[in-house]
Amino acid sequence: MAKIPVQFRLNGTDRAAFVDAPETLLNTLRRSLGDFAPKYGCGQGACGVCTVLIDGEPHLSCLTLSIACEGRQVETASGMASGPELHPLQAQFMEHFAAQCGFCTPGMLTAARSLLDKNPNPTRDEVIEAISGNICRCTGYEPIVAAILAAAGSPGLRRA
Ligand code: FES
Ligand code: FES
Asked: pTM of the prediction?
C-alpha cells in the first residue's frame, strides 16, 4: 500500500511522516515521530491514555486517523514543559504524588490542560468531568483531582 504524506505541527514544531491510510495518530506519534508520551492502552477509545490535544481539544489518538491531522496543531504531554520549567499541572502532579505507575499521567495531563486552558478556575465536579474518560489503573484519582485543582488559577498556565 502506498504511503501518504502527512504534515502537522507537533508541540510547536512542523513534523512530517508517511503513513498508511488507516494509520492512527497514536501509531504515527510513537512509531514515526518518537513521541512516547501518549500511551497505547485499550486501542478502542475506552481508557484515555492516548489523549492528545488537536487544535486545543482533547482527542483519543488511538481513534484518530493521522491523515485527518493534516495541517492541524497536535499537542502531547511531551510539549507541556517550557525548557526546564514544568507546566503548573506537571509541577502539581509531582507535588501531590499524583502519579503512581504513571501510565495514565500523560493522558490525564492533556485532558486537564484542555480544561484549564478554557476554564482556569474549574470546580471539583468540572475537574472530575474533564478526566472522566481517563482510567487510572492505580486508582489514584484523589491526588490527580487535587493536583489539577491546585494548578487551577496558576499564573503559569499557558498554551505551548
Ligand atoms: S488507548 Fe486510546 S482510549 Fe485506550
Ligand atoms: S498512576 Fe498508574 S494508571 Fe494512573
From this structure: 0.95
